Amino acid sequence: MRVVLVDAGGTNIGSVRYALQRLGTDAELTSDAARIRAATHVILPGVGAAAPGMRRLREAGLVDVLRGLTQPVLGVCLGMQLLCERSEEGDTECLGVVPATVRRFDDMPGLRVPHMGWNGLSREREHPLTTGLDEGDTAYFVHSYMVPSGDYTLASSDHGVLFSAMVASGNFMGMQFHPERSAGVGARLLRNFLSL
Prior knowledge:
Low-confidence stretches: none
Strand content: 25-35%
Radius of gyration: 15 Å
Helix content: 10-25%
Number of helices: 6
Strand order of the largest sheet: 2-1-3-4-14-13-12-9
CATH architecture: 3-Layer(aba) Sandwich
Number of strands: 14
Shape: globular
Distance between the termini: 11 Å
Order of helices and strands: EHEHEHHEHEEEEEEEEEEH
Mean pLDDT: 95
C-alpha cells in the first residue's frame, strides 16, 4: 500500500499524517503528479478557504491529475469541499468530482458560525467507508461552509440544517470533520478508507 498526502499547503497535514502513523501507515507528503498517480490511496487534506486551496492545486499542476484518479481518494475538511463542483466561498470553481455546491451556513439566532466542536454523525446509506459507524458516534468539526445533503451523502450532521458529514461519488470520498481529531471514531473511519 502506498498512501500519499497531497501537499496543497493545508495546516492539518501534520496531524493527519500522525493519525495515519498511529494506524501503522506512513503516508508520503507530495505534490509530485507521478507519485500521486502511482499511489494506492490519495488523501487531500486542507484547512482554510476554497479559493486559495484551489489556487495552490492549480499552481502545482494538480487539478487535472486529481480529477483523473481512479484509486480511492479522500478529501478531509476543506479537501472534501474542494471535491465539489463549486464553492460559494469566493465563488470558486472546484474539482467537480462530487455533484454539489458548497454553501455557507445561514446565520440563525443561537447558532454559531463557524460550526466548531463535537457533533453527531447519522449514517444515511451503506458504504464501506461507514462500516462500524454507530448512531450516537461523534466527530470534531471546524467549518463555516458546508456541503448540503444529497445522493452523495454517506453520513449527515445537524447544525441548524442537515449537512453532509461524509460524501462519496465513485472513488472520491470526503469527511467534513477532522478524523485525526475525532478519537476512536476518526481512527475507525480512516482505517476503513485504508482498507478500500
